[in-house]
Amino acid sequence: MEPQNKPTTVQVADLVDRRVQPRFKLEVDISIHSHTCGLLKGHTVDISESGISVMLTTEVPLGELVELTFTVPFGLVQVYAMVRQRNAFRYGLQFVHSETASVIIRQTCRHLAIEQTIERF
Fold it and tell me: Domain tally for the chain?
């Protein structure tokens, strides 16, 4: 392998999924308050302790800070998030943590991990 090819190989390896926390399927209604788009309604796809994936029909700018409101098995979650990525109608939102929301999200992820593992067997 030629030396000039090594950085390319490392860059490709870096593009592989960098997530630290696993995702768990979660399909609930979500309200998103956007400064540029107003109040949006959508549906979640999955959740991790660091973020959530949602389906929206309105385009939200990448980098915008939004306020999320949704309900999980352990209660109501109200948390800010940064719009990090978009693929068609699916958005990746990274939580800007508040301690109260973090506790509920962590409990939900642990519950979903057990529940979804059991479903596989």
Answer: 1
